[in-house]
């Protein structure tokens, strides 16, 4: 086990403090590492699962599922189910599955699956490209591979919307079994009203280079605009870096995201436009009251601005709101140390680790801690 994983397993998400020379050393070390690509040797998307299976959705469409057991072989205390965003796949949770497998307080069994029309799952039609159907698919996966025990749901972008749709369709599941929910870079409604600024949609933006071939910018919603192919039929690295990330992302991670996006054809993405545009589930958020909820977003997100996260937190006053400074639309890839750290907080709260660790885990972690969390994760890797 690497030093960072030992640190995460022992300390988890509990707040830490570092001052003076120690903080200065951490900052200098981090700045030095930023001059090189810290993920250039990371086996992105290549982590082998412990089990692979196919789950039949309610209409028979095959859904590709991967399971990851606790690394130490111990019995899991909770099952974490990751629900990815449009045009992505199970691979988008690379850093979380890597580090959470080593967690021992609590031990986590991880479940990841591909939406229909994505990755290795079956096809999607115009009629089944709805959040309601994606919610049914998520429920099918839960029934098949996590039929009992506590569950924490983690959803990114459309994955978060899918969780909200599931809460609307299956409220008893959230009252009885779902003990934690992490909503990452997502929205509960008004997706078309708050998104990419006009300057990004101009003729000088890489987004617009090949849009005419697809049908015009007006027909695209902010949720999927980042995935528009250029005139050659492929996304450009420049467009992905500009629209999906914040400040200075790892070039290796940018290329990794680009490769994921290239797998899903534009014709599949177009089918989801209507359901995202009509998504309005602010009232449904009340159904999450039985679970610990955290809302994570980047304040440089051009696709779904951080104001969406703030609005969700306004509707759920007990939720933990996490603002990841400088992060874009994929904070789990751009700043994995911070996102995973807060996920550990959520898992510990959901499993009530106070009784197991002998110390209380706070449900409200100050935003001032987030930079230090990132430094500590890099330092102890």
Structural notes for this entry:
- The chain is α/β, with parallel strands linked by helices and 381 residues long.
- The protein has one domain (3-189, 285-379): Alpha/Beta hydrolase fold, catalytic domain (Rossmann fold, 3-Layer(aba) Sandwich).
- The chain is built from 17 helices and 8 strands.
- It has an 8-stranded mixed beta sheet, with helices on both faces.
- The longest helix has 15 residues, at 20-34.
- The protein is globular, with a radius of gyration of 20 Å.
- The termini are close together.
Instruction: Specify Rg, calculated over alpha carbons.
Output: 20 Å
| CATH top level label | Alpha Beta
Please report the total strand number as a whole number. Answer: 8
Order of helices and strands: HHEEEHEHEHHEHHHHHHEHEHHHH
The number of helices is 17
Strand order of the largest sheet: 1-2-4-3-5-6-7-8
Distance between the termini: 10 Å
Task: Indicate the structural class.
Answer: alpha/beta
Shape: globular
Low-confidence stretches: 1-32, 196-233, 354-381
Nearest-integer average pLDDT = 79
Q: Tell me the CATH architecture.
A: 3-Layer(aba) Sandwich
Task: Describe the structure concisely.
Pfam families: Abhydrolase_6 (PF12697). GO terms for molecular function: acyltransferase activity; hydrolase activity. It contains 17 helices and 8 strands.
